[in-house]
Amino acid sequence: MSPDGVAGCIEAPSPVAPARGQREVFCGLTGIVWLHRKMQDAFFLVVGSRTCAHLIQSAAGVMIFAEPRFATAIMDERDLAGLADAHDELDRVVAALLARRPQIRLLFLVGSCPSEVIKLDLSRAAQRLSRTHAPDVRVLAYSGSGIETTFTQGEDACLAAMVPGLAREDAQDALLVVGALPDIVEAQFARLFEALDIGPVRFLPPRASRELPGVGPGTRMLLAQPFLAETARLLQARGAMRIAAPFPFGAQGTSAWLRAAAASFGVADARVDAVIGPAHARAVAALARHREALSGKRIFFFPDSQLEIPLARFVARELGMIPVEIGTPYVHRAHMEPELALLPPDARVVEAGDVEAQLDRVRAARPDLTVCGLGLANPLEAEGLATKWSIELLFSPVHGYEQAADLAGLFARALARRAMLRV
Amino acid sequence: MQLSMWTYEGPPHIGAMRVATAMRGLHYVLHAPQGDTYADLLFTMIERAPTRPPVSYTSFQARDLGGDTAELFKDAVRVAYARFRPEAMLVGASCTAELLQDDPGGLARTLGLPVPVVGVELPAYQKKENWGAAETFYRLVRGFAAARVPPPGTVRARNAVPSCNILGPTALGFRHRDDLAEIRRLLARLGIEVRVVAPLGARPGDLARLGEADFNVVLYPEIAETAAGWLQRAFGQPCTKTVPIGVGATRDFIAEVAGLAGITDIASDIDEQCRLSWYARSVDSTYLTGKRVFIFADATHAIAAARVAADELGFRIVGLGTYSREQARAVREAAARHGVEALITDDYLEVEAAITAVQPELVLGTQMERHIAKRLGLACAVISAPAHVQDFPARTAPQMGFEGANVLFDAWVHPLMMGLEEHLLAMFRDDFEFGAAAAPSHLGAAVAAPVPAAPAWHEAATRELSKIPFFVRTKARRNAELYAIERGVGEVTVETLYEAKAHYAR
Ligand code: SF4
Ligand code: SF4
Questions:
Q1: Residue finishing a domain among A108, A133, A149
Q2: What angle do CA A279, A285, A287 make, to 5 degrees?
Q3: Per-residue pLDDT tens over the stretch B382-415
Q4: Which of A98, A352, B167, B313 has a beta carbon 3.0–4.6 Å from B224's, enabling a disulfide?
Q5: What is the ipTM of this complex?
């Protein structure tokens, strides 16, 4: 065991392939809900149906504290009748939007199922609109459609759309951290890398589009989220080298992630220990209380966000929980290898499939805690199963040392509440 | 193409889901991509339904498009039937599947299932949620009741005990559960028997019996008008036109149903529950006079609210509108009666602009208007769908009938200044603690007390603090300062901030 306790089991569980049947998971449009908060001069325009507009506002819980930086261009019959007209209409809608919101610097046209099915070419539209609105606004396109993407894959598609436009980075030894992180987490990581003398460090996505990082053969990338397959592939094609690591959830995950980066940059062990030691110890101490409450509890993950494997590893290793089933929409073998190696060898990893069959299994298993989507949470609670809704794991800061206990708290609170209630 | 930030109504298949979810023994198979399963959360989270809606989705993917999505749909119907064993099935397509033109209704019928299958086609690129609910309800009613339609020219015989059906309440409806209870009680007092309530709580077989009642009570015209119109033509069953929201409308409703039921002696204390009339006349309510109110809702609730506001609370209407384009005419007429121009739009930004322009004292609207009002610092009460989780209260809070009118009084008056309070404010307006910006005292916001002798903040720590989400920032600041004082640390650094966080997490 290394000092942070991450080396260990070699036998990785092998995922069970998906079964046919109803999948119960959001589409990639949902990513807009957190991406639009991150990139403050970006705007997301879904080109879709009323369903798409309704999905985003329902997933967002309709928190309108300011005029949102996303909208839907709702297609109607005329748009379906002729693609030429649809392009004209899109130009009109974009012009109206940009006139209304002059602060927009980066506009994403986000494809949906209907736009994909009628083959409305949004990349072409994006190029055309970029020319029209240059130099003030850049226009990019990606698909968040439910026929191609699930939930967090929307962020992957969005980040991937930015890669071709990134400037060439010539610096050797640049570190690129990939995946949308809350500002506070980004700042914590930036400080740690600085203390480790790793850098320059850049983040994708950045807070503003003019801060877009560069990429080149000297770039090493560290994935902060487990669902960025396409983005990583494109960055690798631009010469970036991926640093294989577990993901920075929990004290151990964060240490392993930082150590992987440090090893890649040749930072001396003593220095690494000195930098991360206190933060690691602080996180472990903060986790202790939750560990007491959660240790030995059985947990079941419905396939939802692709965070399931790293989270299962975290709750198993750092909180002593027992993952009964780890459902996940999709397992990216290469990115997941370091995580799978850290799971209990008998853990059952299942790729998304038939939700009814999963429900049968969760009822049979009767876990102490079930992590699932919003559609299933109350019905399972009503059946007597404690649940944690997974969307909160995307909306709250959960990465890194200082958030490790918060992450554990999300799981613990569901159980603590049940223990308190006498009704 | 229409640019839309927020939508008042979902797509039409959401309306179909509201009908299917309200009923018992019906299962809906929806040809739709996986992402459309988000709709389940509307019911399980917003309405806190303890069971999943009775809906299966085919969740086809891009790779299925080249192949046979029709076969996929048939499989889904077969599997759903085998698993849920419903008494009848409803099938249809969402916006994406509509483009595939697989014809769910036709496909499902080829399966030879042992139960009735009703197909609904809901044009997703033209129509919206309420229309979808109305069309689905109509198709179901017709599907099950058609076999019992009497030959043309048949004269209806009255039932010995006057009877009616109640049409319109659905799942996810604004206060439908409570309105239904209130109207049932009212009809019982009138001696009118309720045969079938639909869609809420009805089984497919109940719909077949709809023709037996003497008349239909249409609670929500947006949803039940189409079906009620067909029942009128097919069975000669008349239906009510008055929506009993407010004291006056409730009295009109009583007169209307009494007429339809052939009842002449109505108990003089039928309105014994009614408190609104006295509360509105009590002296404290004088301060309500001429309060400027802006109303935006579905057509039924908007029109009803305008009448209550003007006639029963003495407010002045400065805006009236709806997102229900189908009922625009009725809203225009109502607006004309109240001397304003109707705002007919489903563009939330237009509504916001209209509210900003007239600066009302009270906004009666949907959850969208609640947000607008919150942002503008205006008092607000929600009177219509779309509504959020807090608009599905644990207590019974109808909008209809005499008790409903009492609820309206409370719900609309509460956000305003209380009578005496308003006078005191006017009297002490020069006192620095009062002033125009003062909020109603019962809505006061708590402010965390500052830490005495707080230590200084290192610049980096201040910057870090500013990155903490605003709703926990005050707490984070306070904890860090207390922690620093406790340890005798002279200055709060980034380290202190996180030491404190870890410390208080324990
Ligand atoms: S503020 Fe939040 S809870 Fe309140 S209505 Fe809006 S979305 Fe719903
Ligand atoms: S699944 Fe497709 S149609 Fe449905 S909301 Fe997502 S992108 Fe729109």
A1: A149
A2: 105
A3: 999 999 898 999 999 999 999 999 999 999 998 8
A4: B167
A5: 0.92
